Each structure stands twice: as C-alpha cells, then as structure tokens.
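Database export, one record per block. Field names are fixed; values are copied verbatim from the stored entry.
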Amino acid sequence: MVFTVFVALMSNQYFEFKRFRIEQESCSMKVGTDGVLLGAWFPLEAGMSVLDIGTGTGLIALMAAQRGAGSVTAVEIDADAADQARRNAANSPWSSLIRVECTDISDFTAVSGFDRIVCNPPFFRNSLRCPDAGRNTARHNDSLSFEKLSERAAALLKDGGLLCVVLPYDASESFVKCVLAKGLNLCRKTDIITAPGKSPKRSLLAFTKQNSGLETDVICMYDSDGKESLEYVELVKNFYLKY
C-alpha cells in the first residue's frame, strides 16, 4: 500500500543516505518519508541559519547541513533521541555546523533569530496512546502543541525568515489557523499525493512575517504506472542512495 511510505522507510537500526548515515536504535520515531520531504523541500540558501525543532534522529538537520546551511541548531526534548542525533551529527561531514540541544522548545533561547525554522511536528490530538512513551512524545502533540510551535517560531524567526513544516493534509488547516494567529502568513503550500487522481496525504507549508502572497503546487510521488515520478525523484535525488 503506497501510503505506508509516509510512516517509516525502514525499521532497521540505521538508514544510509548518500552523504550521511542515520543510526536510529535509540529513537522512537525512525526515518520516514515526511522528514525527507521536508528536508529536501524547504527553501534554503547557502550560509543560512537553521533551527530544527524536534529533530529526532537529526535527519532534517543533516539534510540542511548537506544543502549548505551555515549553522544548524537542533532541539529535541527526548534525551535518548538527542544523544542519537548528537552522535549522527558528530559522525557526519558537518559535525562543526550542527549543535544539538536537549530541551523543551519553550525553554530554548537564542542570541539571534533564525533564517529558517523547520519542524516535522507531532500531530495526533486526544488519540489513543501506545505503550511506548517515547513514541507518544514524538507523535502526540501534548509536549509540542500547534499553539506552542507557532508562538515559539514567531519569536525565534528573523524578519524575512521562513517557518517550514510537514503535516498530514487533514491537520494542515488547523495548523495554519494557529500560525496566522501568531502573526505569520502562509506563503507557500505544496500538497503531496501518492498517485494521479488521489487525494492529498501530506502538506508542506512555509510561513513568513511578510504578507507576500501564496504560492501553491502539487507533487505526485508515483505516476500512473506505479513508478516514482520525475518531480519526486528530482526533489530527493541528492539524498537517497538509489538515485
């Protein structure tokens, strides 16, 4: 079933990318397509400062470093995941660029704002918990509500900067409302569909303090023959080994 690609790409203890390796045995949430989509999609120019909220394995932080970020700060509330992200960064070509902090984003402070804030946020609200406490933290938004993420992003974002997230399509409307209430404006929206004619499964969203209009598009992951589409391959080809 195509939709399963959004949940987890691999349940192994590691995932090998072209230029870095993600060890993930200590992380409740493994490498998944959501994170790869966001890490490849969000607009980034060389030398920019990036804040990755809820970094987990450190995947998006490492993707940002590979794409030319000048500095990456990765915040993670779970101690085991933060340690894992720290090790993944240390074993990468960009160990000097990535700093991992184990803290709640509410307690995080910075000397200056960030050019880009990225987050693959937990999105379940009031839903059934699983026995794994770490997985609950990663998937349920008790510790990182949409309201908290919106408030902290608005405070930490530079003028001209972007907040970029990936969410299930059905959760995107409520998130947009929270962000608008904090004074940010939706400037770019890319919906992800798995095949032609299917309803969107995910939305990639970018917000800014400016009111610059809205750019929208759609990425279809697979063509009518079930092959990965050219537009999807173009987006992620610099990261996956198979391309």
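Remark 1: Strands lie at 14-16, 21-23, 49-53, 71-76, 98-102, 114-119, 157-168, 185-193, 202-208, 215-220.
Remark 2: The mean pLDDT is 90.
End of record.
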